[in-house]
Amino acid sequence: MDFTYFGALFITMKIIIYVTLPLLLFAVVIAYCLLLNRKLLNNLIEILINIPIIFPPVGIGFLLVLCFSRNSFLGRYLNVDIVFSFSGICIAAFLTGIPFIARAVMAGIGGSINDLCDASYTLGKSRLNTFLVIVIPLLKNNIMQGFILAIGRIVGEVGITMMVGGNIAGKTTTVSLAIYNAVLDGENDRALVLAGVLFVFSLLIFYMLRYIGNKVYTVY
Predict the structure, then answer these.
(1) Measured between alpha carbons, how far is 81 from 164 in angstroms, rounded to an integer?
(2) Model's pTM, two decimal places?
């Protein structure tokens, strides 16, 4: 294997490392917001997590470039430029993973958890204490399932990553983009090796989800 392989794999692993904590923190924030049970807030959350699924990734990438490029209003005001940069593809990866981890959290919050929270409140426990002691432990498997699905989707993303990152070899080229480049260059052997790596990764994702799914239980 040459740098083409290792470079794309290294960049992909760096993205996973950089977005792990933000995604997990986002899951906790979403869970807390949903627990507040405010209709307007819940509707806003639903819109937030569905737009990245419905709206084409290339379109999201274009909006990010439009909003945060060096010459944009936000880019000048915040003094940032995410276009063709590693930080840009990390932001793109985070946005790609949001719907999956948020949906997993939403699926886990139901009547049983709300009933337990109500019982905790009647015992004099604060909302924060109830959230940390009851809700998070009950949602940990859902959060992990959503996180694993998000990582799987992030690794396979092409459109938004190419739009924001520019597909620069050794800087913003992920494994999926490396496959795309190899096919364009007629290097099918290289594309096949990288596709095999993604296939093994997909199997790992599948078995991790299956393992966690067997541990999920319902509180009656």
Answers:
(1) 10
(2) 0.83
Task: Name the residue among 104, 96, 108 with its Cα closest to residue 51.
Answer: 96
Answer left, alpha or beta for residue 216, where phi above 0 means left and psi between -120 and 50 means alpha: beta
Residue partners of 188: CB distance under 8 A and separation at least 6: 182
| Neighbour count for residue 27 (Cβ, 10 Å) | 27
Running DSSP on this structure, what letter comes out for residue 56? -
| Cβ neighbours of residue 92 closer than 8 Å, sequence gap 6 or more | 60, 61, 64, 157, 160, 161, 163, 164, 165
Which pLDDT belongs to residue 218? Answer: 45
d(C-alpha 43, C-alpha 203), whole Å: 35
Q: What is the pLDDT of residue 5?
A: 65
**Rg of the chain over CA atoms, in angstroms?**
20
